[in-house]
Amino acid sequence: MVDNAASGADLSRVWKVLREAGLTALIAGFLAVPLIGLRTIGGRDGMAVESRWDMLMIAVAVVFTGRLVLIALRRVLPRLGAGVGKIGSFGTLFARHRSGLAGLALALALALPLMPFSDRYLVDIATLVLIYVMLGWGLNIVVGLAGLLDLGYVAFYAVGAYSFALLGTVYEWSFWACLPVAGACAAAFGILLGYPVLRLRGDYLAIVTLGFGEIIRVVLTNWVEFSGGPNGIASIPRPTLLGLEFSRRAPEEQSFHHFFDIDYSGDHRITFLYYVILLLALLTNLFVLRIRKLPLGRAWEALREDEIACRALGINPVNTKLSAFALGAMFGGFAGSFFASRSGFISPESFTFIESALILSIVVLGGMGSQIGVVLAAAAIILVPEFLREFSEYRMLAFGAAMVLIMIWRPRGLLAHRAPTVSLGQSGARP
Q1: Engineered SS bond to 152: which of 27, 212, 267, 338, CB 3.0-4.6 Å?
Q2: Residue 431: per-residue pLDDT
C-alpha cells in the first residue's frame, strides 16, 4: 500500500511538471506563429506568405525542454545551496582565511601587468573591472550598509566625470588636482539628493533617486554651452606620474620614456592607469572597512535594520542618511573622474540608467554589505560578456541565463553571510 501511494505521488508530480512545460510550450508556439511559423516573401506576382512549420516545431520543442530544465534546476539548486551551507558557506570560508586570501588577491593584482600572459587587452579589461569594483563599494555604503535603495547612483558618477573634464579642459588642471574636487562636487550632489528624500523609503526612494539620475543626464544633454550637449567633451587630460606624461609628443623633459631612457610604448600608459585605479580602489576599501567599525558605520547598519529603533536609541537618522549619501557619492565622483581621464572623452550616453542598474546588480549579486562579494560580482558581470563576445548576439542571452541561475542558487548574493562588524566578544561584553 505504501509503495503504491508513493508511486502514485511520483506520477502525479511528473504529470504536473509535464503539464506545466507543455502549457508553456503551447503558449510560446501560439505567440511564435507570426514570428517564426509564417514569413512574407516578395516576387513578381506580389507578396506571398510562406509557412515554416518545421522551424515552429523546433522552437516549441526548445521551449518545452528549457522549461523542464528550469523546473529541475529550481528544485536542485536550492538543495545544492543548502548542502553547501551545511558544509560551510562561502562567507564562512572567506572569514576563516580572510587575511591569506586578501594578501593573495593583492599580490595577484599588483603582479597582473607583469605576468607573461598579460597583454594590453587584459590589463584594460582589469582596469574596467576595478572601476566597477570602486563604484560597487561606493554604492554598497548606501544600499548595503545604510539600507537605502538608490537607482540614480550614475548621477554622481557623471558629476565626477564632468567636474574633471571641465576643470581639465577649461582651466587645464591636472588629474591629481581635480580628483578631490570631483569627489567633493559629487558629495555635494549626494547631500542635495539626500536632503529632500529623508522621509522616503523603499520603492518611493528608488523612484526619486531614479528621477534624479535622469535629471542629471537630461541637463547634461541639453545644456550645450556648459557640457557640450550630446557632442560631449573631448581632449580630456590624462593622469601623469609626477608631471611625466605618457605621450610620444610630450616634451623630452616631461615625457615618461625620455626621463627613464626607455623606448616609447603605449602599454606604459595602460599599465599606469591600471595601478592608479587599483590604488583608488584599495583606498576606498580601506576607508569603508575602517568606517564600518566607527560609530557612524554602526549607525548605518542600525538604520538599515530598524529606523524606529535608531530614533529610540538617540541616533539622528537625518545626519546618518546624509552621510551615507555623501560618502557613497564621493567615491562615485572619484571613479567618474578616473573614467573621464582614462577615456579622454565623455558624453551623456555614458551615464544612462543602465549603468545604475549594472552597479546595483553588482551590489545585490555580491551580497548586501559584502566587500569581497562586490569584487566577485563585478568580475563576473564584466568578464562573462567579454568571454562570450565570440558568440555575437547570443552572448547577452547566455549572460542573462547565468545571472538567473546564480540568483536561483544564491538568492541573497554570492556572499550573503557576513560576520557582524562588532560582536560581543570584541566589545568585551558577556553573553
Answers
A1: 212
A2: 38
CB 374 within 8 A of CB 140: yes
Which triple of cell numbers denotes residue 102?
A: 586578501
One-letter amino acid at 396 equals M
- Do 200 and 148 touch, CB atoms closer than 8 A? no
The span from the CA of 177 to the CA of 297, in Å, is 29
Q: Which residues 6+ apart lie within 8 Å of 123 measured at CB?
A: 112, 113, 267, 270, 271, 274
The pLDDT of residue 84 is above 50: no
Domains of the chain: 2-82 (no CATH), 97-418 (1.10.3470)
Better-scored residue on pLDDT, 294 or 385: 294
Distances (CA, A) of 425 to 202, 266, 330, 422, 429: 34, 53, 33, 8, 6
Q: What is the pLDDT of residue 165?
A: 93
Count Cα neighbours of 156 within 13 Å in the Cβ-side half-sphere: 37
Q: Are 342 and 273 in contact (CB under 8 A)?
A: yes
380 contact partners, CB below 8 Å, separation of at least 6? 365, 406
Q: What number of other Cβ atoms are within 10 A of residue 68's Cβ?
A: 17
Binning the chain into helix, strand and coil, the percentages to the nearest 5 are: 75, 5, 20
Whole-angstrom Cα distance, residue 162 to residue 232? Answer: 9
Q: Cell for 181?
A: 574636487
Residue 40 pairs with which residues in a beta bridge? 49
Sign of CA dihedral 233, 239, 243, 244: negative
Contact 57, 382 (CB under 8 A): no
- For the chain, what is the radius of gyration of the CA atoms? 26
Integer Cα distance of 344 and 327 in angstroms: 26
